[in-house]
Amino acid sequence: SLPHVAADSIPTLHAAGDDTLPRTPTGISEFDIALGGGLVAGGILLLAGEPGIGKSTLILTVAGAMTAHGTVLYISGEETAAQVRNRADRLGVPADRIRFLATADGTTAAAAIRSLRPAVAIVDSIQTLSLPDVPVDAGGVTQVRALTSLLTATAKSNGIPTILIGHVTKDGIIAGPKTLEHLVDQVAILEGEPGLPLRMLRTTKNRYGATDIVGVFSMTEKGLEPLADPTAAFRTSRHAPVPGSAVAVTVQGNRTLLIEIQTLATRSSMGPPQRRTIGIDINRLHVLLAVLAERGGVSLGSSDVHAVTTGGFKLIDPGADLALLAALASAATGRTVPFDACVGTIGLDGSIRTVPVLERRIREAVRLGCRTIAVPPETPNVRGATLIPITSTRDCVLTLKEQHRS
Fold first, then answer.
1. What is the DSSP secondary structure assignment for residue 22, as one 8-state letter?
2. Number of C-beta neighbours around residue 148 at 10 A
């Protein structure tokens, strides 16, 4: 039978009070922006990324910055103290206030965190540690879940911010069980295109704030350095427009970025037409190509189509639809896009629809030097902007052609 619970004993939500936890800014601007203000006392952050993307470089830089708040504990299950010390020297990180523990034993790691009570604890990486009483190999589903539960309990009971480093597979999935993401408070993914210096730190889960906030870094000889003007990194410096290029006004959490999209359409000479993307969802590209053909009268069915974002920025904002469509139509017709920027999402019927925080996007585009902006119909005027209402996919194509004639 069910236990008896008196109705009067159930408190209101208001009686629970405010449980806001204090944050500690690291002083690394883009890192703090991505996390919503800094590290949270007792919070568990999972920092993930592909091998070689710069996770250890970023986290050691964070460790050096956090020494201003006290001792930092760095736990490694795969590197020696000498290896980490060499990296710290190269990055200019003060090593005298960073305690280092090389161990693959999860219980030893938890005991060290509880004993030292550092300003921040770092575990590099969660897949290399194991618990002696869990009879499976390190990195397995059972091991990773048990380890994360132990480290979470340790962090929260002592109010210690803890950063767990995790690996990402080639498909962009965090290695280990998907439930690992549900056990932590925050998940941040370090992204970037191999061979390019740009790195994006994207928060995909945040119990303490907004998600999909992006911090932008540049990989240099001195490590990952925050970019003072992230928008400049995602736009080319040329002055003359070229066919196939358009600028999207995107929202990433609480910040607005202008991202250049470049497309190229060439007639396929061998086999079926190919579609290649960098930073753009391939499925979204297929949808917009179909809409452009059916609703705009411009078919690229027999052409190879390539679409990339400058710097390889991962573009997931539906508000970038109009910019991608305009870039594709421009590449197909050879006409340059007559707008400084575009914002709007597109339906399967070819209509151009509004997006959240539209006025904020336009104001930021104006602040960054854009004047002529393609927008959905009935968009309110914004001071300093010349708005070009685009009602449909066909209207977008016709605007490109008419502008070229004029």
1. P
2. 26
Q: What is the per-residue DSSP string for 121-172?
A: EEEE-GGG-B-TTS-S-TTSHHHHHHHHHHHHHHHHHHT--EEEEEEB-TTS
d(CA 269, CA 60): 49
Helix (H, G, I), strand (E, B) or coil at 85: helix
206 CB-near residues (< 8 Å, 6+ apart): 35, 36, 185, 186, 187, 213
Query: Model confidence over 216-275: pLDDT tens digits?
Result: 999 988 889 998 778 777 776 656 789 999 999 999 877 889 999 999 999 887 789 999
Contact 79, 96 (CB under 8 A): no
Q: What is the DSSP letter of 267?
A: E
Do 127 and 167 touch, CB atoms closer than 8 A?
Answer: yes
Looking up tokens 């629809």, which residue turns up? 353
Judge whether 280 and 259 are in contact, CB under 8 Å.
no
CA distance 13 to 19: 12
Supply the pTM of this predicted model.
Answer: 0.84
What distance in Å separates the CA atoms of residue 37 and residue 25, rounded to the nearest whole number? 6
Q: Which of 335, 332, 312 is nearest to 264 (CA)?
A: 332
d(CA 131, CA 143): 7
**How many other CB atoms are there within 10 angstroms of residue 86's CB atom?**
12
Tell me which H or E stretch contains 108: helix 106-116
Packing angle between helix 282-296 and helix 321-333, nearest 10 degrees? 60
**Whole-angstrom distance, CA of residue 328 vs CA of residue 152:** 47
CA distance linking residue 364 with residue 356, whole number of Å: 14
Q: The tokens 């994006």 sit on which residue?
A: 200
* Residue with tokens 């104006």, as numbered in its chain: 366
* Amino acid sitting at position 342: C
Residue 224: phi, psi to the nearest 5? -85, 120
Instruction: Spell out, as residue ranges, where the chain has pLDDT lower than 50.
Output: 175, 177, 406
Strand ranges for 2-107 from DSSP E: 23-24, 39-40, 44-49, 72-76, 98-102
- CA 210, distance to chain mean position in Å, is 12
